[in-house]
Amino acid sequence: MDNRNIKIIALVFVSLLVSTGYVLAFGVSSPYWKDNPLKMYPGETKEVSFNLQNCPSLSEDCDQKEANVLVSFEEGNEIAQITNGPTYKVPFGSSDTNVILKVSIPESASVGDSYNVKLSIGAPNDETGGNIQLGVGYNVEFPVNVVEEEITEKPGVSTTTIVVIVLLVLIAIGVLFWLLKKRK
Fold this sequence. Notes:
By secondary structure, the protein is α+β, with helices and mostly antiparallel strands. It has a domain of 125 residues: Immunoglobulin-like. It is built from two helices and nine strands. The strands form two sheets. A five-stranded mixed sheet has the order 2-9-8-4-6, with no helix packed on it. The N and C termini lie far apart (126 Å).
């Protein structure tokens, strides 16, 4: 094949890609990322939600079909598990499908330890079709930093308030005795 044929084939291929009428507008929103890590203390368990979206703007440029999504671990399954399953159907125009992770830090973890959680999010293998895979895929990655447990004081009554209440009760009792004595 000469250079001219290669250029024509490349031009036709690029033209086909550019002229495609629909865009797959699937996306994922993560509450944690590299610069905003999840912070947990040893022995703590938390549920974390990731939001899956399928063209929530309802744009006409989107492929107006339900998106089938597979979520799998690349890293971090030693501290996290997907509680609501690995496969999801995300309706067109929606932004309310959640992937829920249950993250548990071992009791044996030390303050300063860090774990990495990395999820692969994309089309299931049986939907990519043929040898050429044009499916959209995302990686969601975030660190889980082990920190000291924060001990917060429970709101309560201050010592000053207790002293004032006791004094008022004593004064009230004294006035009551004085009134009873005066009556006799």
